[in-house]
Amino acid sequence: MAEFLLSLLQIIIVNLVLSGDNAVVIALACRNLRPELQKKAVFWGGFGAIGLRVILTFIAIWLLQIPFVQVIGGLLLIWIAVKLLKGEEEESHIGGGTNMLEALKTIIFADLIMSLDNVIAVAGAANGNMLLVIIGLSVSIPLIIWGSQLLMLLMNRFPVIVLLGAALLGYTAGEMIVGDKVVGAFLEGVLPALHTILPVALALVVIAVGTYLKRKHEKPEEDRGAQDHAEIL
């Protein structure tokens, strides 16, 4: 039971950390609707997004049973975690729907495009448990939809939340890699302790690499800002 609850908490945290942008899309898609329709669009759009993401996660769980696919998924998750720490954000050009149907289509389509990282992370954390997927997504996605503004405020105010979230993704990636049937059996034969060491090591690697790239990315911007300031003076 304790293991189930820990995995459920892992799924919820992963979703919260990775889904901040989805709420922005929902707000943009609904901004042109009449006030009385906005809440309905948010609710039904979120409901559709939940259903779609559950289906995609089930497909991902099925795919992860194929040898070496978990390794690929784990490596992709490491890239996602580093990107999260580096602070890269994709520009979203989302138009606001003028009627509820247009807004719903925008919300669901945008969620489909933006949910690859969530789906891979949740599938890895669930470790094949369908019940965990359903409960985890059912709890976390409404929190994202209705509590996203608070979540983004907390992330901006307490950057350690993003750091811990990225570390959790690195740990999940390690679990996915050692959980692969072929690679896991090989590692078991070489060094059984790797099943415990690798997830922790990847969590630390994600923090180190992501933090380094973030500082490297921020330095040119600081230099440009100082140069602009000097030119003004």
Give a verbal description of the structure.
With 233 residues, this protein is mainly α. It contains 10 helices and no strands. Helix 1 (2-18) runs antiparallel to helix 6 (116-126), helix 2 (20-30) packs across helix 7 (130-157) and helix 8 runs antiparallel to helix 10 (194-232). It is flat. The protein starts with a helix and ends with a helix.
| DSSP, total strands | 0
Q: Stretches where pLDDT falls below 50 for ≥5 residues?
A: 89-94
What is the tally of helical segments? 10
End-to-end span in angstroms? 64 Å
Q: Shape from CA axes?
A: flat
Chain-averaged pLDDT: 75
Q: How helical, in percent, are the residues?
A: over 70%
The percentage of residues in β strands lies in under 5%
What is the CA-based Rg, rounded?
20 Å
Sketch the topology as an H/E string, one letter per element: HHHHHHHHHH
Let me know the largest β-sheet: none
Q: Structural class per helix/strand content?
A: mainly alpha
Short note summarizing the structure:
Helix content is 85%, strand content 0%. It is mainly α and 233 residues long. Helix 1 crosses helix 7 and helix 2 packs across helix 7.
Features of the shown structure:
mainly alpha
How does the SSE layout of this entry go?
Blueprint: H1 2-18, H2 20-30, H3 35-63, H4 69-86, H5 100-114, H6 116-126, H7 130-157, H8 160-179, H9 181-190, H10 194-232
